[in-house]
């Protein structure tokens, strides 16, 4: 038996429970978790913003050590340190054929599988976003496992599986920030802090962090923000004032709210670019009129998983870490246990802190 955080139903509180994992079958890998990040996407599963089969063990940002492997698994072996990839590409759908693996049509197919059972009654459990990282151990498909980068502690490597890939990719792949450009980042959570660091690495000349919480200014500046703006109805105006009346070249929205997306778009210069990373609900409707779309010439783009290919991008991120350009400790504001995950969800709802990291 292993302990895990189980979501019994949408809208229900998490339950810390014992679960039974099978020995890994063909093409499967069993992993002992070392650390797992608490991401807003996990919260989105609990409240129904994102819908996947339940009951499920949540957690999708993690790293650990291979315990055992099933038949046919050759790229990792027992004892190897690994990073979990919650959105593995199938390699055969239309998006994969185009090289856009972050849009793989089958990336979340594994979430419908039954991967474990509750010890108390034998009921079926699904693996949340494929990897069920909120557990002492997990069993995943082999394509959900990537070798951990050399020289990066596993507790740090856990963050590479979502927050850092997403934030770095939003800047370098989606928005394609160029040296000297100005950037605004909306939302100073785990992904927002990674985005700020990525903008600094890209050589942005001015990096404006925007959040509702004054307490996050120190976090934002440590991550690379040159300016900090408390979110209000005047945010776009304030950002234009910081950029000579023009607006930033790039805005990255990490919140997923209609008003924030609209404000991010308004805060960019004429011809500017807005990348939306935040996952919003269907009720969050963003409106534009046809004339302003023509007049401002701005670009609004969605961004899934940072438009990243983990196999390609993890070595790049690891080099930034080893060179001291990327500081993963700047993302983490608290280290917690499995039992503390519900409180970490409450802090996210309240807009407190950056990334909470579960240490096993």
Q: What this model shows, in words?
A:
Helix content is about 25%, strand content about 25%. It is an alpha/beta fold and about 350 residues long. Strands 3, 5, 6, 9, 10, 17 and 18 form a seven-stranded mixed beta sheet that branches. Strand 15 (about 270-275), helix 9 and strand 16 (about 300) form a beta-alpha-beta unit. The model has no long low-confidence stretch (mean pLDDT about 95). The protein contains eleven helices and 18 strands.
Describe the protein's topology.
Layout: E1 2-7, E2 15-20, E3 28-38, H1 40-47, E4 56-57, E5 61-69, E6 81-84, H2 94-97, E7 116-118, E8 124-125, E9 137-141, E10 145-147, H3 154-157, H4 163-174, E11 182-186, H5 190-202, E12 206-211, H6 217-223, E13 227-230, H7 235-242, E14 248-253, H8 258-266, E15 268-276, H9 290-296, E16 299-302, H10 310-322, E17 332-336, H11 341-349, E18 355-359
Parallel strand pairs: 11-12, 11-14, 12-13, 14-15, 15-16, 17-18
Antiparallel strand pairs: 1-2, 1-4, 2-7, 3-5, 3-9, 3-18, 5-6, 6-10, 7-8
Helix pairs in contact: 4-5
List the defining traits of the structure above.
360 residues; alpha/beta; seven-stranded mixed sheet; six-stranded parallel sheet; 18 strands; 26% helix; globular
